[in-house]
Amino acid sequence: MKKNILVCGGTGCVASQSRTVHDALESELKKRGLENQIKLKYSGCHGFCQQCPLVLIEPQGYFYCRVTGEHAPKLVDSLEEGNILEDLLYKDPQTGEKIKTRDNVPFYQKQERLVLKNCGIINPENIDDYLNAGGYRTLQRVFDMSPEEVIEEVKNSGLRGRGGGGFPTGLKWQYGRQAQGDKKYIICNADEGDPGAFMDRSILEGDPHRVLEGMLIAGYAIGAVEGFVYARAEYPLAVKRLAIAIRQARERGYLGANITGSQFNFDIHINQGAGAFVCGEETALIESIQGNRGMPRPRPPFPATAGLWDRPTVVNNVETLANLPVIYQMGADNYAAIGTEQSKGTKIFALTGKIQNTGLVEVPMGITLREIIFDIGGGMGTGKKFKAAQIGGPSGGCLSEEHLDLPIDYDSLIEIGAMMGSGGLVVMDEDTCMVELARFFLSFTRMEACGKCTPCREGNTRLLEILKRITGGQGEPEDLVLMEKLGRNIINASLCGLGQSAPNPVLSTLRYFRSEYEMHVNKKICPAGVCKNLLSYKIIEDKCKACGLCLKHCPAGAITGTKGEPHAIDPQMCAKCGECLEKCPFGAIMLQ
Question: If DSSP codes are grouped into helix, strand and coil, which group holds residue 4?
Fold first, then answer.
């Protein structure tokens, strides 16, 4: 049986030199004359970014982690001899067991990879790999149905938009279908701008034809003839593979006129965004495609009735569209059986932060935060206690330890003041200052806002000023009440989703970590030791060995002392840089 070597070609693995691994394997196979017996190819992202570069061996399913170019000769030896290269297998940190196949690695065991099924298995730059995996087969089934039946199938599946708001996809399509217009459009929103988020990028890099197939289904359903993928220019690998996929689809008759012998005509174009976070909002995105500055429009009218060039336009994000072939392959009822009553199917999260296993995970809706963080993520990677998880990106909310057993779905998150967002999930330990975290995220959204509406432009500026005062040691008790009132007003009065969700990190941290704000305001202390102006350093005389290291490295000259005598820090001169704490080998310096 022919053997395949799949080298992960996702951005994370490429950054960890997977191209070097591929080239070394290619050279080794050619040197031994094995290039026809053993097929070498790039795949998409496997998701387990903590262990990259990753290599999968088929058909055995052997899963190798942290592979380097130097491993190439031994890896080819093992293939020739029919052995397993045990040194590269994943080692379970709990049991010490070396695990042979990917699906048996704990990171994957609670996942349900439906959308990500092909990622890591097929070559994203080869349409034949997609076709052999069942790609584009759902199109014929869709073309045998009426557009109304196609929309009904999506409504029955319960699919909700994966880009943030969770609006029912079938209902959006129905509005687009019923709207009057001489031309209609489908837009794929690939403007993924959340810090730490890489869900859409990984789908486009690993399985671009799945997204194209989803756009074709959506286009047929609403009667569109043209589609646009609005992708971030910062995603060069995703854009490159998407362009290859579009060219291949045209050559094989899956794009253009009379697709697969039907009466349906549809083509797709790529439009690269310039990196404006606000263009993730659908009306700002539409303005950008039209060549205007990316600023949201007042609604109504909604894009489904008056969108791109004032024609009916349906905007779905990458993950939403990638779910469509899944729904038509397994059937709406089977898809709807996954998840919860109001949140069907799976959700992809970018799991990052102070966690053992960072990466991309696809889990059924309704899974708990505890299962994602401790079962899939392997728990805290710092050896410290879990403190919080930021879900939904910079406009999401911060969840505390009391939410670890909360089912993750759209409605449960909204009830506690958070949101699903596009799927960013940042885990934090006890060294994180929640006040500083709220300041950081609000600073990001304020900088990325377009400035069109006063509540967002002025309200978030004032909110940020208050947070800066608090982290700078000048906060007052009334600031906490003022922030809550101001945050609610911004949410209620802002024009678009960016402004309406920007205060979420502030309000959620005030709600669940209020004591930390009170420590900053009332006692001028940062319990996490992060806010520079609230820190003070003291030398413990009993522990000080008078070695002089702290004195030597203090940039402010705030430390005094002679050889053989305990040193001291002048708090008035101290620059609070923490250099002394870092350099002291005896633990004689403490934060207070």
Answer: strand
Q: Given the DSSP bridges, would you call strands 98-99 and 267-273 parallel, antiparallel or unpaired?
A: unpaired
Residues 6 or more apart from 511 whose CB is under 8 A from it?
Answer: 417
Place of tokens 């291949």: 248
Q: What span, in angstroms and rounded, lies between the C-alpha atoms of 363 and 350?
A: 11
Q: How far apart are CA 410 and CA 418, in angstroms?
A: 9
CA separation for the pair 317, 115 (Å, rounded): 13
Distance (Å, rounded) from C-alpha 80 to C-alpha 289?
52
For position 469, what pLDDT does the model report? 96
Segment 563-592, tens digit of pLDDT: 888 899 888 888 888 888 888 999 888 877
**162 Cβ neighbours under 8 A, 6+ residues apart:** 317, 319, 320, 323, 347, 348, 422, 423
Q: How far apart are CA 201 and CA 213, in angstroms?
A: 17
Q: What is the residue whose two structure tokens read 């170019």?
A: 69
**pLDDT for 338:** 97
Q: What is the mean pLDDT of the chain?
A: 93
Reduced to 3 states, what is the DSSP secondary structure of residue 55? strand
At 333-377, the pLDDT tens digits run: 999 999 999 999 999 999 999 999 999 999 999 999 999 999 999
- Give me the residue label for tokens 């008078």: 546
d(CA 324, CA 346): 12
- Identify whether the C-beta of residue 432 lies closer than 8 Å to the C-beta of residue 387: yes
3-class DSSP state of 61: coil
Mean pLDDT of 511-522: 95
Q: Please give the Cα distance from 574 to 578 (Å, whole number).
A: 9
Q: 391 and 416 in contact (C-beta within 8 Å)?
A: no
Cis before 394? omega within 30: no
* pLDDT over 90, % of the chain: 80
Cα 237 off chain centre by:
16
Assign 3-state DSSP to the chain and report helix, strand, coil percentages, each to 5. Answer: 45, 15, 40
Structure token pair of residue 131: 């076709």
Mean pLDDT of 105-125: 95
Distance CA 276, CA 294 (A): 8
pTM beyond 0.85: yes
